[in-house]
Specification:
With 178 residues, the chain is α+β, with helices and mostly antiparallel strands. Helices cover 24% and strands 49% of the residues. The protein contains 4 helices and 11 strands. It has a 4-stranded mixed beta sheet, with no helix packed on it.
Length: 178
C-alpha cells in the first residue's frame, strides 16, 4: 500500500526549514506524520590534500554538542557546486582546483525532505579564514589522514551521519572500499 496525504498544514517555517503536519493513510491505517523540509539542498565537501589528509571542522552543535565534521552548508538556492566551493572557503579558508561530484543522499528520510550533495575537493590551496570560521561557529580546522578519519568513525569520535556518509562516498570513489 502506498501513502496517501489527506490534508497538510504548515506548523512552522523559517528561511532554513519548513515543518508540516500531514494527515495520512499508510500501510498501518490513518495517522499524522510530521515532515521537516529543508528550504534548500545541502552540500558536503571531503577536501583531501596531497598528503591524503581530510579537512575537518571542529565545532559545538546546539543540538548534539561537540562535533567533528567535513565542511558543509546550505545551497541558499545556488548551484550545489558553487555552494560547495563557497562553504569550503568560508569554513576553512581552503580553495580547490579539482572538484568531483560524488553523489546525492537524503538526510533523516523517515522524517525529512533534505536532499544533500557530496563533493570531493583536491588540488587544495590554504589561505586564512579566521573571521569566517568565527561567524560559522567553528573552533578549529583539523587535518586528519583518511585512514585515521575512518578510525575516528569506528571509535565514535566522528558521529555526524552526513560526515560519515560523505567519507564513505569518497572512500568508494578512491577505491578504498571494496
Amino acid at each position: 500500500m502506498t501513502w496517501t496525504t489527506r490534508a497538510t498544514r504548515t506548523v512552522y517555517e523559517n528561511r532554513w526549514i519548513h515543518v508540516r503536519e500531514d494527515d495520512v493513510t499508510g500501510p498501518h491505517g490513518d495517522g499524522i506524520y510530521g515532515v521537516v523540509r529543508m528550504q534548500h539542498p545541502a552540500v558536503f565537501v571531503v577536501a583531501l590534500d596531497d598528503h591524503d589528509r581530510v579537512c575537518f571542522v571542529d565545532l559545538e552543535r546546539y543540538t548534539t554538542g561537540r562535533s567533528l565534521e567535513v565542511p558543509a552548508g546550505g545551497t541558499d538556492g545556488e548551484d550545489p557546486l558553487a555552494a560547495a566551493q563557497r562553504e569550503l572557503r568560508e569554513e576553512t579558508g581552503v580553495t580547490a582546483s579539482e572538484w568531483h561530484s560524488l553523489g546525492r543522499m537524503n538526510a533523516l528520510n523517515g522524517i525529512a525532505d533534505a536532499p544533500e550533495h557530496v563533493f570531493l575537493a583536491r588540488g587544495l590551496t590554504i589561505a586564512d579564514a579566521t573571521a569566517s570560521q568565527h561567524e560559522e561557529g567553528i573552533d578549529a580546522v583539523r587535518w586528519v589522514p583518511f585512514s585515521e578519519a575512518l578510525a575516528l568513525v569506528a571509535d565514535g569520535t566522528i558521529s555526524d551521519g552526513e560526515t560519515i556518509a560523505a567519507l564513505a562516498f569518497a572512500g568508494i570513489r578512491m577505491g578504498r572500499f571494496r
